[in-house]
Amino acid sequence: MDAIILENVSKTFKIPHDYKAGIKSYLLGFFNLTHCYERFHALKNINLRVRQGEFLGIIGPNGSGKSTLLKIIANVIQPTTGRVLVHGKISPFLELGVGFQGELTVKENVYLYGVLLGIQQKEIARRFDSIIHFAELERFIDTKLKNLSSGMLARLGFSIAIQVDADILLVDEVLAVGDEAFQEKCYSIFRKFKREGKTILLVSHDKSLIRKFADRTIRLHHEK
Ligand code: ADP
Ligand code: MG
Ligand 2 mean position to 26 CA, how many Å? Predict the structure, then answer.
C-alpha cells in the first residue's frame, strides 16, 4: 500500500522584482506599480509514490525544491497544481525554527509546538520529560529559545517530532547541525521506526547516511 502519492505536483512562487530605472518607473511608482513578479517554478510535475514502511532519501542541490516538497506533503503549503494523497498521520520535522517562538522558553515551546503537531496538552505533559531528556536540554527548560544554539534547536525539534504517534516521519536536512552523539541517537530512532514499519522521508546531503538507511533515493534538479 502507498503511504504518499503525488500526481503531477507543481509549485510556482512569485518572486518580486523592483525596477527603479528612470522617469517611467518613477511615475509607475507614483501609482504604486513598481513591483513586477517573476513566476518561479520550485517544483515541476512531480510524480511520486512512497510505499508504506519505505525509507525514501531525497537529495539535490540547494534550491532544488527539497524543503518545498516536504512542506507540500506535510500540508504546510499547497501545490499550485496537482494532487497529494497521504494515508496516515504525518509528523513533520521541517526547517529549523518553523513553529518555534524565540521569545518563549523551551518548556513553553514544547507545549506550543506539540499542539501545532496535534498532540493533546495532557499527552505533552506526560511526554515532557522524555522530550527534554532525548533533546538533552534538562538544564535549559526555562531558557528562552532565542538563546539556544542551532544544534540545540534541532535536538528539540526532532525530539518533539518523534513523540507524535505518526505513521510518516518527514525529516529535513536540519539533523546535520546536531553533534555526532545526537546524530547517533537519531539513527537509532530511524532503525526503530523502520522496524515498526513507519514511512520515513529524509532530506540529506550526507551520502553515507542516505546509503545506510534509504531503500530508495530520489534526486531533485534545478529547472533547466
Ligand atoms: P531546497 O530545500 O532544495 O534547498 P527549497 O524547497 O527551500 O529548496 O526552495 C526551492 C526554491 O523555491 C528556491 O529557489 C527558493 O528560493 C524558492 N522558494 C521557496 N519558498 C519560497 C517562497 N515562499 N517564496 C518564494 N520563493 C520560494
Ligand atoms: Mg531545504
Answer: 37
pLDDT for residue 117 = 80
CATH placement of domain 2-8+50-219 = 3.40.50.300
Strands 35-51 and 2-18: antiparallel
40, 71, 223, best to mutate for ligand 1 pocket (most atoms within 8 Å of CB) = 40
Residue 204 CB–ligand 1 contact under 6 Å: no
Residue found by looking up cell 503525488 in the block: 6
Element (H, E) at 68: helix 66-73
Please give the Cα distance from 28 to 40 (Å, whole number): 24
Cell of 200: 520515513
Which residues place a Cβ less than 5 A from the ion ligand 2? 66-67
The DSSP annotation for 121-163 comes to HHHHHHHHHHHHHHHT-GGGTTSBGGGS-HHHHHHHHHHHHTT
Which segment, 42-56, 105-119, 148-162, is predicted with the most confidence on average?
42-56
Q: What is the pLDDT of residue 19?
A: 58
Q: How far apart are CA 172 and CA 58, in angstroms?
A: 9
53 lines ligand 1 (CB under 6 A): no
- Give the lowest-confidence range in 18-27, 68-77, 91-100, 192-201: 18-27
Higher pLDDT, 38 or 201: 201
